[in-house]
Design brief:
alpha+beta, 30% helix, D-amino Acid Aminotransferase, Chain A, domain 1, 2 domains, Phosphorylase Kinase, domain 1
Length: 301
Amino acid sequence: MLQIPDNAKLNIRGKTKNGYVVPNDEKTIYFNFKDAQTVNEKGEIDPGGNVVGGEATQGIGLANFVLTTYFFKLFEDCLDIPTHMIKSDIDNGIMHVKRAKLYGQDYVIPKLHLTGKKLGDTLYNVNVGGLEVINRRRFTGSFVREFDDFYDMMRIDMDNPSFVEFALKNDEAGDPRISRRQLVSEGILTEEKIAQIVKESQSMEKLVQRLAGCKGYEVIDFKTEHGITADNEHLLVDEYGTGTCRIFTTSRINNSPKPFDKVEAFLGEDIANDIQNLNTKGLNDKIDIEVEKAKALVLKR
């Protein structure tokens, strides 16, 4: 059973998670997930939103916790992508993770050259809270608002790799995109590290897309965050939950499932019902069973 040590202190108050640190432990953090979701400027639930909605959604923290545990195990076991997860105890609502600094965190970019409809404009002295990696199979939301050559829900053929872009974590600036060239010129990432992250992201997209397709869904896009430990270990960090990816039912285009429907899409009705009823008893074992079923599907030749 995993427990937050008595001497741990609440040190991180994120939008969807709290982080507890133990004095003299500089390598790990304990997380619990909040019943909160990000929303856009209209107050609508939006994975790309920069603020937390006004009302908590009961069980959404548990849903994010369960999906993150499930996918992190799959990414590690099927794709050899290291994550920051050390141990996850869903029954007790705690995840123990390695401490990592986000790529780009604490950088200040003197001149950020904007793209899309703001091409030619410049933002000055942009504080960087880290990088978001955005993986798109279909183009929608902020992307089509910025680029006129793309229409809403425009799709990349499944025979081709998904589209991967980078954005800066800066709510005040609207999480602006940054080119790969500027990432290198600013010394935030090397070309080799960019290539590694893109390869990992596209591998994750193939895996998640296959699992979603088995239940009649398609993944539209998702975002991930990556970081590095004090021991120079590259890791997938943060979470892969209801607010990380957008999916829709292939039978009805633009029918985007609600957060708990995403749990059902990947993990089935039984687990989705447990989460909505806040029934955590036995969830650890149920998730392990679903992980093994997914691995058998994904790794099947």
